[in-house]
Design goal:
By secondary structure, the chain is of the alpha+beta class. Helix content is 26%, strand content 21%. α2 runs antiparallel to α6.
């Protein structure tokens, strides 16, 4: 099992790689005349990259291996005695998440102490138990978890490093891209933000895609990728 320090180091590495790839795509599109700016989203909640097609701006999500494609929190409802998940970024995805059943076989792997709801324990004990147990994965979740999440954010297209360009829930520009048809995993993790027992520690979920689960596309928004059909072949400036 990976240590918490290893997790933090790994997450920072993924974040930096993601920001670097965002910059590469945005700057490339800008220099080619398919973007108004070289600036990327960075750590903000707006689209990673914005591209131009027929004079109008459109959102583009950027993906790399190890990325959280959507994320939110898992809660214990003391009135219904059931788990439920949500995300502040997508009402549609929240509704879908609440149709899923987080059965005892999954949650009891951590035990009630780990997720800190059925019994009263300090936050430090909750997080310590969860870290000992490691992450939990619910496999075979539908691709619509990713599509709904980004559709509610007004993003319909995605570029994945090493794999190419796709459309997600909708293809409003009718670009000749394949659909982002993947089989994601739902990862559960307890995140701690402090050492005091008074500090809340969240149980979180995130949509992950195994490295073997990415499809290949013949198209790319990367202007320097010579192995695929670049944006000059499917975007129009006017």
């Amino acid at each position: 099992m990976k240590s918490f320090l290893h997790y933090i180091t790994e997450k920072r590495g993924v974040a930096k790689a993601g920001f670097d790839y965002e910059k590469k795509i945005q700057v490339g599109l800008f220099k080619a005349g398919y973007a108004k700016t070289k600036a990327t989203a960075g750590s903000t909640n707006r689209a990673d990259v914005v591209f131009l097609h027929r004079g109008r701006e459109h959102n583009l999500e950027i993906g790399i291996l190890g990325k959280d494609f959507a994320q939110g929190k898992v809660h214990w409802n003391t009135e219904t005695n059931k788990w439920y998940a949500d995300t502040k970024n997508s009402e549609t995805l929240t509704k879908f998440l609440q149709t899923l059943t987080y059965d005892d076989d999954l949650m009891d792997t951590w035990g009630p102490v780990a997720i800190g709801a059925k019994t009263k324990v300090t936050a430090k004990k909750r997080v310590a138990a969860a870290r000992r147990g490691g992450d939990l994965y619910l496999t075979g979740v539908p691709a619509r978890m990713i599509w709904d999440y980004y559709n509610d954010k007004g993003t319909h297209y995605i570029q994945v490093n090493g794999h190419g360009a796709y459309y997600m829930k909708k293809n409003p520009l009718n670009l000749p891209l394949p659909r982002f048809t993947v089989v994601p995993e739902l990862r559960f993790r307890v995140k701690g933000y402090g050492s005091s027992s008074a500090v809340p520690h969240d149980t979180t979920w995130a949509v992950k895609i195994p490295s073997s689960g990415f499809p290949k596309s013949d198209y790319t928004f990367d202007v320097k990728d010579t192995t695929r059909k670049g944006p000059l072949t499917f975007l129009k400036k006017r």
